[in-house]
Automatic annotation (TrEMBL):
Domain HNH nuclease: from-to ranges: 311-363
Top-level division of the source organism's lineage: Bacteria
InterPro entries per record: DUF222, HNH_nuc
Designated name of the protein: HNH nuclease domain-containing protein
CDD domains: HNHc (cd00085)
Length: 404
């Protein structure tokens, strides 16, 4: 521990590339050793039920509450500790820093009670499997190790019934203070194939000229777009008499004030967003006026009005045929109807004041970009600095002429 405090004072910018890589490798080994000792300690505490000392029933609950670990991380530490009690070769490699906590978690399923019983019934020596998988884990990429573990588990029950894919599926969502979320999920092979197929279709259709997003950004945008499509379709299950919808609460003065900063609006699931984001969501949403009393209780509420009536949307879909942002070809059913002059500032909800924009480009238009329809029906797009976004080959220099 003292050595880590000393290392924190090092000037990393003074190190060469080779030195930085060597330092990284050594820190990974040191982290593996610490993770190994943490896992070993948790295993003993789990076996002894030491958590009862603080009035809790399980070690995962103790780790969540006293060490602020996520539910998934706490459960994985306990599972790994229990598995290592049956896998001494892997435990030794872990303690030496040769394998990572992720690799231990990948191998841990072979030590579950059902798998150990199946191995014993078939005369499989778990000690040999422990040594073989550890030998793979030390030099091979994590993907290769996962494939080896899967093959072993499949061999234990080659003729058994196909497992229920839903048993291994998990999705954990963690909400942060600003309302953003991170998550972790596990899907079986077929479920994963379905997700990748759906995302890939959206990713490929959503690519446009000048798209500089990374692959991970494209996939994340595709996931949000899938949710948008489902919410807009109106086919999701009805909840207490209401269709699922994104709810935003904001004071009318904040909604109308273009200078309002972040934190002016709240969502149904407790996130805090800016007034600008609320105005963007309201472009193609429904608005309900609610008068609040001084004690925070509603005094009066009006009818919920859809800002863009169906006939205006249908006309915009026929006219625009998709997202009008330069270079984008997103289909109409991905798009919101954007008010060129915001409705809260007096913009009318009619075809002349409307433009179809996909979720990504709708966001950009509310953050400084601008689209405008020309008298000849063409749409043009400008950047926040006033320069126009032009797509396709651009002519430079004098025009070509041909001799008569």
């Amino acid at each position: 521990m003292a050595r880590l405090l000393v290392l924190a004072d090092d000037d990393l910018h003074a190190l060469g590339d080779r030195a930085l890589l060597d330092r990284t490798a050594e820190l990974v080994r040191e982290r593996n050793r610490i993770d190994a000792e943490l896992t070993r300690t948790i295993r003993v505490a789990d076996a002894r039920q030491a958590c009862e000392h603080d009035g809790l029933k399980t070690m995962p609950s103790w780790l969540r509450n006293h060490s602020r670990l996520s539910a998934a991380a706490a459960a994985e530490l306990v599972r790994s500790g229990r598995a290592l009690a049956h896998l001494p070769v892997l435990a030794a490699a872990f303690a030496a820093g040769d394998v990572t906590a992720d690799q231990v978690a990948a191998i841990a399923p072979i030590a579950r009670d059902a798998h150990r019983v199946a191995a014993a019934e078939q005369g499989v020596d778990l000690a040999e499997v422990d040594a073989a998988l550890t030998a793979i884990a030390v030099p091979q990429p994590h993907r290769v190790l996962g494939q080896a573990v899967d093959r072993y588990l499949a061999m234990l029950d080659p003729d058994g019934p196909e497992p229920d894919p839903t048993e291994g599926r998990r999705l954990a969502i963690i909400k942060h203070a600003d309302g953003s979320i991170t998550g972790r999920f596990d899907l079986d092979a077929v479920g994963g194939e379905k997700l990748q197929t759906a995302l890939e279709s959206v990713v490929q259709v959503g690519r446009c000229a000048g798209d500089e997003r990374t692959r991970t950004q494209q996939s994340a945008d595709a996931l949000v777009q899938l949710c948008d499509n489902q919410l807009a379709a109106g086919t999701l299950p009805i909840l207490r008499g209401h269709k699922p919808q994104v709810i935003v609460k904001i004071a009318v003065e904040d909604l109308a004030d273009p200078a309002t900063g972040p934190g002016a609006a709240g969502t149904g699931f407790g996130a805090t967003i800016s007034a600008a984001r609320a105005r963007w969501l309201a472009c193609d949403g429904a608005v309900t006026r609610i008068v609040m009393g001084p004690d925070g209780m509603p005094l009066d509420y009006g009818r919920t009005l859809r800002l863009v009536p169906p006939h205006v949307r249908r006309a915009a879909e026929v006219r625009d045929a998709g997202c009008v942002f330069a270079g984008c070809g997103a289909p109409t059913f991905w798009c919101d109807v954007h008010h060129l002059l915001e409705w809260i500032n007096g913009g009318e909800t009619n075809l002349e004041n409307s433009a179809l924009l996909c979720e990504r480009h709708h966001t950009k238009v509310h953050h400084g970009f601008r689209v405008e329809r020309q008298p000849d029906g063409r749409w043009r797009t400008w950047r926040p600095d006033g320069t126009e976004i032009l797509t396709g080959p651009q002519r430079t220099g004098a025009p070509l002429t041909t001799a008569a």
